[in-house]
Structure formats: structure tokens, C-alpha cells
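Quick question: who can interpret this fold?

. . .
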Amino acid sequence: MMLRALLLCVAILLIPNMAKALEEPHWDLLDTLGDVELRRYAPSIEARTPLRSGRESSGGFQRLAGYIFGGNDEGAKIAMTAPVGETLSGDNPVMSFTMPGAYSMDDLPTPENGSVTLHETPERLVAAVTFSGWATSSKINRYRRTLLTTLSENGISLRGEPTLNQYNPPWTPPFLRRNEIVVEIEAATSTD
């Protein structure tokens, strides 16, 4: 019993610091609408891979991890970042890793796996709602509805499909996990 309590204390202290050590895309908070944040994201580069279905996460993750762990034409290792993004709807589901900010497209090695591609993502406006715990289907659907309803009620138009962003390693206890449902939005003339 005491060992279990000690391990829980170590997890509480170390796991948040491990997640914080991962680089995340840079963004500025523009506004909040209840639980929804409106953000301006800086340009970035993403490694992406298609998913056979909307929930084929492990295969997509393995392909992207393979790329950053040396599965590229240079055998180079690229630092892991957060979050791992996964589209939630549409005919062509995709999983993505954001590349560390120190890289340009010219600096990044070419993926060995032909289903992993690199994409420049321009500056964009995004709406996001954050939640903790496991990203179960019911939670994803609930927070997606919250996000989309809030945007609709405020006359904000979408520019794409919502994405699930997950920030933590799989061994992170549910109460320490951070997840977001995000969607790119149209710029309103008042925030341009």
C-alpha cells in the first residue's frame, strides 16, 4: 500500500513535467467565449499520415513516430512535440505531429514511409475547448458539441473539420491528461 502511494506521488510530480518538456506550437489567446478559447497560432510544419478510419490511431502514431525516430532519408532523430492531432470527421482522416520550431521545410529529412508527408501550416485562427481524462468517444462528442454550439451561437464560421489534440504520453494518469477539441475558424473583421 505504501509503495502504491509513493508511486502515485512520483507520477503526480514527474508526469506533468515530462509533458511540459515537450515543445508545443506557439499561440496567442485572443478571446474566450465561456469554455472556448479563440487563439492565433504561429506558422508551423506538420508531419501527417492518413488513417484508414477515424479511430485507427495506433497505426498512424507508429508511422509518425517511425519518421521522427529515424525513419527518414538521413536516419535523423527529431524531438517529439505535443500535441498529437487527429481529425474527427470527414472522408480522409489524418493524424499529425507538429515539427519542432527550429526546423524549416528545407531542414527536415524526407520520410522513408511514403504515407508520411510534410506540410507547412500558415498562421491561423483556431477555437479550442480543453478537457482532462481519457479521450473517450462520449467525451470527444460532448466537447465537440460544446465547441461547435458556442461558435454557432457567436456567428463564427469554421474553416475545416474539428481535430482531437492529445498532449500526454499514454501512461499519464487520466486526471493529469490534457486534451483539446480544436477547429480552424474564419477571421472576423474585428479581430484581423
Remarks:
- The longest helix spans residues 2-21.
